Amino acid sequence: MTDPLINPTALSGTIERILLADGCTADEAQTVADHLVLASLSGHDSHGVIRTMRYHLWIADGTINPKTPLTTVLDNGPLLQLDGQDGMGQWLAKEATARGIAKAKETGIGLVALRRAGHIGRIGTYAEQACAAGMVSIQFCNVNGSLLVAPFGTARRCAGTDPVAVGIPNAEGEDFILDFATSLVAEGKALVAGTGGKPLPDDALVDADGRMTGDPRVLYGDTLDTGNPDPRGGSGALRAMGDHKGSGLALACELLAGALTGNGANRPEEKQFGNGLLSIILDPATFDDTGMFGREVADYIDFVQSSPPAAGVGKVLVPGDRERMLRAERSANGLPMPEPVLAGILATAQAVGLPDTRDDLIMR
Ligand code: NAD
Questions:
Q1: What is residue 260's DSSP assignment?
Q2: 20 to 30 Å CA-CA from 90: which of 98, 142, 147, 289?
Q3: Could you tell me if the CB of 319 is within 6 A of ligand 1?
Q4: Going by CA atoms, what residue is nearest to atom 7 of ligand 1?
Q5: What domains can you pick out in the chain, each with its CATH number?
């Protein structure tokens, strides 16, 4: 049976109403709902609407807290140090990015250190926000309290799936949006494999004895059989991407977005979940004394995209292309959603007293 196709606007409305019922402000509810739907439309289902159920539970147990303001720890020249106090992550990161953009417009650079944010979702969103304002940006993120990844050469969890993003505006075409987790595969993909879905590559995980494997059981242990697999349940780990180079980037995220922001770097002890984000936002207009930046970006992206494809590759893409293509296709035809995810969202809506909107959500 094929997955039902969901109307993204109606889905965003349902998630927004769940979050309002859970105590979010109107702005928080709309920001988080729109973020999740856009992540799903962009093909990042692991960071999309599937998170609705988890956020509902996290609000109930105090892991994340609606109506928590973004507080300023330091505002000094281009530097901003902000504390999210475990509030609604996507709303906090959007506000933090907006403040960084304002700094960059004033001085050419905004350097924003955000700590203790609830889950901020798809990091590329903030690179896109900066690009929309004409800004270059670099984001390092750590996931404190989510120890899942073994760095290169180890058989021990030492890091989160810590993502990195780079956004470069392209005034004459599509923006460059690089955005990826520094683990070889996202935890969501291990979950899919562990529950009967697409298998993982043979080197995606490492067991406690240091042997590479594609078996998700080393991550979840016996919780894989419980219906509620817990990635803390196993004795192995996800592996960092890109051998020593990608692994070094994961450690840099722990140090820059964890240690430097004050969010904290991962350790074996139980910790409160929290994203740390170090964003460097640059106004190219300040740097571009030659006036070449816009032309160079457009020409360079064209140069790469027009390269002859390697064997087996249909079309050469640059970072950001895949998300844009999927977004266009899914916005037009509907968001494919596995029935258990749809059922989970509807059950959450019902739990907060909302009517069943299944018929409004399904396009076909
Ligand atoms: P991924 O492996 O799908 O890589 C995505 C990047 O690769 C994008 O920039 C994309 O445009 C580019 N890309 C994809 N196909 C390409 C191709 N054929 N040619 C050129 N470029 C191509 O991403 P991922 O590692 O699975 O990460 C998924 C999402 O999870 C990201 O949005 C990330 O920010 C998010 N994440 C968030 C957290 C958090 O704690 N908030 C933690 C981990 C990951």
A1: I
A2: 147
A3: yes
A4: 319
A5: 5-64+334-361 (1.10.1530.10), 90-287 (3.30.1370.60)
CA 120 to ligand 1 centroid distance, Å: 14
- What are the residue ranges of helices labelled H in 67-212? 89-107, 124-132, 187-194
Does residue 150's CB lie within 6 angstroms of at least one atom of ligand 1?
no
Q: What is the mean pLDDT of residues 32-40?
A: 97
Q: How far is CA 357 from CA 173, 264, 342, in A?
A: 38, 41, 11
Kindly report, residue by residue over 170-202, the tens digit of the pLDDT: 999 999 999 999 999 988 889 878 878 789 999
C-beta of 161 in contact with ligand 1 (< 6 A): yes
> For residue 84, how many other CB atoms are within 10 A of its CB?
29
Q: Which ligand 1 atom minimizes the distance to the CA of 143?
A: 40
How far, in Å, CA of 45 to CA of 36, rounded?
A: 9
Which position has the token pair 């901003």?
Answer: 80
Q: Which residue's CA lies nearest to atom 18 of ligand 1?
A: 317
Ligand 1 near 275 CB (within 6 A): yes
Other residues' Cβ atoms within 10 Å of the Cβ of residue 341: 20
Dihedral, CA of residue 139, residue 140, residue 144 and residue 150, to nearest 10? 140
Q: For ligand 1, say whether the CB of 249 is within 6 Å of any of its atoms.
A: no
How large is the angle between the packed helices 51-61 and 8-21, nearest 10 degrees?
Answer: 10
Closest by alpha carbon to 123, among 57, 190, 53, 182?
182
Q: Is the pLDDT of residue 227 over 90?
A: no
| Interval 219-230 mean pLDDT | 88
Using a 6 Å cutoff on CB, does residue 128 contact ligand 1?
Answer: no
Residue 96 has pLDDT above 80, yes or no: yes
Residue 185 CA from chain centroid, whole number: 13
Coil, strand, or helix at residue 195? coil
311-322 residue pLDDT tens = 999 999 999 999
Tokens of 317: 């893409």
